[in-house]
Amino acid sequence: MFTIRICELNIEIDNRYGLVEDQCRAYLTDGAPAFRAAVSSRETDEYIRACGRPMTAAEAESALLYRRICGCMPDYDAFLLHAAVLTMDGRGYAFSARRGTGKTTHVAMWKQAYGSRVTVVNGDKPLVRRMADGHYRVYGTPWCGKEGENANLSVPLNAICFLEQGPRNVITDNPAADTVARILEATILPPEEAAQDRMAALIGAVTRDIPAYLLYCLPDKSAAELAYATLQQVRN
Fold first, then answer.
1. 96: CB partners within 8 A, 6+ apart
2. Which of 8, 28, 37, 169 has its CA 20 to 30 A from that of 19?
3. Could you tell me if 139 and 73 are in contact, meaning their C-beta atoms sit under 8 angstroms apart?
4. What is the pLDDT of residues 95-145, one digit of tens each?
5. 215 HSE (CA, 13 A, CB side)
6. Is the pTM of this model over 0.70?
7. Is 8 helix (H, G, I), strand (E, B) or coil?
8. Which strand (E) or helix (H) includes residue 226?
9. How far apart are CA 79 and CA 127, in angstroms?
């Protein structure tokens, strides 16, 4: 058992395997926890059977613990967004895409175009939180996809960009209804009805407050340059 600090919350992790503690090493804290996350051996066994790919019990435990954490996040005005989050010049941009669309490639193109100016906050599973002042921040977490890119830091969330493959690079404003639908695809809904209501209100607020774009892109540096030219103009 150990405690981590993510999204400005201390969370106690009740684990059986060492994998998740190794994974969380950069996020360990001694602070009093806001809540506790645990999963049973039955839950890990069921998850492995349902997953459809080879997986160890330790890997299943890690995945389920993060699901449990994400299920509690709406209580703190926060939620998981499956996205790669980059920060550049003090600003944060989230790039969300369906599996196989090329999110990892797009992140690599930003690095190629802008080098050390770019930091990957999280490559796949960051947390977004609405702060008391109404602004939004996005947080690195130990759960970050197979590339393992994450940083224990938070940055302002200035824009969300949804990626689609296309024959040329085109970026447009994304309609609010489609933004809501895409965020719902890219998050984990909590099991309790009250938490679901809080989550729905939070996603509605994010859609209202954070500019969202749709980028049809090629797998090359020009897509990153177009994205940056557009997103860096956002002022919020």
1. 81, 82, 83, 84, 103, 160, 161, 162, 163, 182, 183, 186
2. 8
3. no
4. 999 887 788 899 999 999 999 999 999 999 999 999 999 999 999 999 998
5. 30
6. yes
7. coil
8. helix 221-231
9. 6
